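Hi U.,

Before I forget, here's the chain from the pilot set. I'm dumping it here mostly so it's searchable later in email.
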Amino acid sequence: MHLLPLFKLLTVGALLTKNALALPQGSLPRSPTLESAENFHKRDGKHITPLADDCKLDFAEEWSAGRSSGAPFCASQIKNGLFVKGFFLFTGSAQPPSWTIPMKTAIIDGITVLYHNGDYTNVGKVTGEKTWVEWDVNKASVVKVNLNPRDLSVDQNLRQIRVVGPGGKQAHGGNDWNDKGKPYSDSEWDARGTTPIHGAIVGIAGKTGAMGVESITFYTLNAKAKKSFLHDVKFSPTLDELNGKGSNEAKGMRDEAVLVGHAIQPGRNGAPEVFHLKRTFSHKKAKSWTHANTQLAHVGIGLEVEYQASVPTSKWTTKGKIDAFWEGSWTKERVESFDKTETSEMWIDVTVQPHQIATVTANFITGELERKWTGKVTVDYENGKTLTYLTSGTLKETTYSEGRFITEYTEWKDGIVALQKGQAALNTKGEVLNGIDTAKLIKTMQETP
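Structure:
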């Protein structure tokens, strides 16, 4: 038995899962919902210790406060496509012995930085009283700091942070006291206002020392996305896995039709003859799609989807196309129209040798699959910067069609009626078109006594 090249077609209803994309045309991974900040340690996230170079973010805007000395720390995963979801501030109490006026001060002992995928980075001492700050990338927040009043001119100890979000909502780490031994009033905090910080946090850096977190730097991406390009896409299951062993049911498919076999034989002139067979079938389009030519087993998909994008500093809706292809080269055909029945043709050449009969079976299978995919997306921003992120998703309502010609050769004997060389087009009923006698094609005559 000889298995001729397969023809495969994927049409995609192009529905993306909620946690797949957040930038237009499939870009930024969106974070899982944080049901409760107190419970995030129970999630599947893991602790990440970034390298110092991970916080050398020349594409980001920088906001800093605190001392210049101490051990540096870095909390950033933007090189892996992850923004900062928010952070915990952990506080304790300290009494600097050199101060002449007794006072209490709540210093920042440590910070836990949570990324969009649930992973996190711990900095300093992350026990004791804590406050959760969730960062809204679409709105500005004001970060206010309480610095050591003994040294306001040059190098200032960072003692407290208060983040004022949209609507005046405030979050800070514990309480703090002024030089009169009283808690800071709102007006005293207001006097420490800073320039509002816009955009997504792409990293938090700083230094730690004897007074806990003694300096802090926020890196933000204050830029709108201009365009994005999805590339390096890989699917699961792969095309090879779909072609692999196992029943159709195991692939998630169902048989649509199996055409009857056709016995084809050459004339009696002693030379090989070629029969050009055609199978025509129609299918309803769901979204725009791309298919390979019939001589290759590789296939591509095309998506045309409308995205509701949540981009740092803006919200917009855009419609874009994504082409995602397997490795390899092929001839592709783009189909742009919607809600239209398209007709596809599969042609195959069957060469029949003298004294042989070729029985050709056309087998077609359709089904629906969910296919997970991973890839990279490169985003161009209006500030001239370009970043590449990891991204993933799931394609749902994927229609899978498989066509196969199987040719089986048997010996030809005298007395069998020979057919004329020519084209035999098979319809969905297994009948032959193009003027060739169906009865002659499928009928094997009795041998001559």
